[in-house]
Design goal:
With 371 residues, this protein is α/β, with parallel strands linked by helices. It has two domains: 175 residues, Rossmann fold, CATH 3.40.50.2000; 183 residues, 3-Layer(aba) Sandwich (Rossmann fold). It has 15 helices and 13 strands. The strands form two sheets. Strands 3-2-1-4-5-6-7 form a seven-stranded parallel sheet, sandwiched between helices. Helix 6 crosses helix 10 and helix 7 crosses helix 8. 45% of the residues are buried. It is a peripheral membrane protein. It comes from Biomaibacter acetigenes. This is UDP-N-acetylglucosamine--N-acetylmuramyl-(pentapeptide) pyrophosphoryl-undecaprenol N-acetylglucosamine transferase. Its EC number is 2.4.1.227.
C-alpha cells in the first residue's frame, strides 16, 4: 500500500491547533508510515505548538480581515493572494491524499485550492457557531465535521456529520481520591476549580478575590484557582495586602498554571471558566457542571454561543463578562454547590453532551474519503 500523505491547515489560536494535533496524532497511530504536514503562519500559536508536538510546519503568507473596511483590508487582500500562491505550491509539492482544515484564516486558501485541484477535503468546526472561513469552505469540501448538534444549520446537511471535538483522552482519566490527596483537600467539602485558559483571565481573578475573602472562614467549599503565569505574582500580592495567607488556610489552592489538568478536573465538583471550544469539550468529557463567563471579544462572539448551548442543555449557568462581580459569582457558586440535586443533575447533563469518541469518528470519516 502506498504511503499516505496528509496536510492539516489551521491556526491562530489553540482552539484551532490542538484539535489538529489530536487528529494528526490519530493519523500517525493508524497510518504509521504517513507523511503529515501542517500549514500555518508565522503569527499564530502553531509556530510553537506544532513543532513541539513533533510535526513539520510549512508557513504561508496570509492574514485575517478586519471587521471594518480600512487600508489594512488592502494588505489582507494582497496577503490572501500570496497565501493562495503559497498554498498551491505546497499542494503540488506534497501531493496529499487528503487535506484537513481545523479553522482560522490560514485554512482558507489551503482548503479552497485543494478542493479546486480535486484533492479530498474535510473541515472540522470546534464551536457551536462556526467562523466565516469554515462557513465559506463548507461549500467546497467533501465533508464537514461538527462538534455540536446545533451547528448543523450552518452547513450543507448532506455532507455534515456530528463527531465532537477531539481532546486528549487522558483529560478524563484523573482519580478523584488521588487528586484530592495531591492538592491537600478534604473529600467531604465541594471543590470549585476556576481557570481562564492557558494565559489566565484577569476578570475571573478579580472576581475570585471577593469569593476567597468570603469563603476563607466559612469553608462552604474549597477552591483551586489557576491564575495564569502572568497574573500569579500580582494576585498573590493582592491577597497578601488583604492579610490573606492561602497556604495557612489549606482549602484554597492557587496555581499559576496546571500541567496535569486531569487531576484538577477529577478533584472538582464545579468548574468556572471562559467558554472556548477546548474548555467546554474538556468540561463535558469530564462531566462537570460549569459557570461560564464567555470572553466578550472572541471572534464572532463564538464563546457566547458555546456557553448558551451548555446552559440550554442544563450543564452550565452563564454570567456575561459585563455583569461579572465577586458577589454575583459567589451567589452563583453557592446556588450550585450547596444544592446536591442541582449539582448532580448538571453533572449528568454535562456528561450527556460529551463526545468521548470524537477522534475515532473523525478518523472514520477521513478513511472513507481516502478509500
Amino acid at each position: 500500500m502506498p504511503r499516505k500523505r496528509f496536510i492539516l491547515a489551521g491556526g491562530g489560536t489553540g482552539g484551532h491547533i490542538y484539535p489538529a494535533i489530536a487528529i494528526a496524532s490519530g493519523l500517525k497511530r493508524d497510518f504509521s508510515d504517513a507523511d503529515i504536514v501542517f500549514v500555518g503562519t508565522d503569527r499564530g500559536l502553531e509556530r510553537d505548538l506544532v513543532p513541539k508536538a513533533g510535526f513539520n510546519l510549512k508557513k504561508i503568507r496570509v492574514k485575517g480581515f478586519q471587521r471594518k473596511l480600512s487600508l489594512d483590508t488592502l494588505s489582507s487582500i494582497k496577503e490572501m493572494f500570496l497565501g493562495g500562491l503559497d498554498s498551491v505550491k505546497i499542494l503540488r509539492q506534497i501531493k496529499p491524499d487528503l487535506v484537513i482544515g481545523t479553522g482560522g484564516y490560514v485554512a482558507g486558501p489551503v482548503i479552497f485550492f485543494a478542493s479546486v485541484m480535486g484533492i479530498p477535503t474535510i473541515i472540522h468546526e470546534q464551536n457551536v457557531k462556526p467562523g466565516i472561513t469554515n462557513r465559506f469552505l463548507s461549500n467546497f469540501v467533501d465533508r464537514v465535521a461538527i462538534s455540536f448538534q446545533d451547528s448543523v444549520k450552518y452547513f450543507p446537511k448532506n455532507k455534515t456529520v456530528l463527531t465532537g471535538n477531539p481532546v486528549r483522552p487522558e483529560i478524563a482519566g484523573g482519580n478523584r481520591i488521588k487528586a484530592l490527596k495531591e492538592y491537600g483537600l478534604a473529600p467531604d467539602i465541594p471543590v470549585v476549580l476556576c481557570f481562564g485558559g492557558s494565559q489566565g483571565a484577569a476578570r475571573l481573578n478579580d472576581a475570585m478575590i471577593y469569593v476567597i475573602e468570603k469563603v476563607m472562614r466559612t469553608k462552604m467549599f474549597q477552591v483551586i484557582l489557576v491564575t495564569g503565569q502572568r497574573h500569579y505574582m500580582n494576585f498573590t500580592q493582592l491577597l497578601e495586602n488583604k492579610g490573606i495567607n492561602t497556604d495557612a488556610l489549606g482549602h484554597i489552592k492557587l496555581k499559576p498554571y496546571i500541567y496535569d489538568m486531569q487531576d484538577a478536573y477529577a478533584a472538582a465538583d464545579l468548574v468556572i471558566a471562559r467558554a472556548g471550544a477546548i474548555s467546554i469539550s474538556e468540561i463535558t468529557l469530564c462531566g462537570k457542571p460549569a459557570i461560564l463567563i464567555p470572553f466578550p471579544n472572541a471572534a464572532g462572539h463564538h464563546q457566547d454561543y458555546n456557553a448558551i448551548f451548555l446552559k440550554k442543555n442544563g450543564a452550565a449557568l452563564v454570567i456575561e463578562d459585563k455583569d461579572l462581580t465577586g458577589e454575583r459569582l459567589l451567589k452563583t457558586i453557592e446556588s450550585i454547590v450547596l444544592d446536591k440535586n442541582k449539582l448532580s443533575s448538571m453533572a449528568a447533563a454535562s456528561r450527556k453532551l460529551s463526545q468521548p469518541d470524537a477522534l475515532e469518528k473523525i478518523l472514520s470519516e477521513i478513511k472513507k474519503l481516502i478509500g
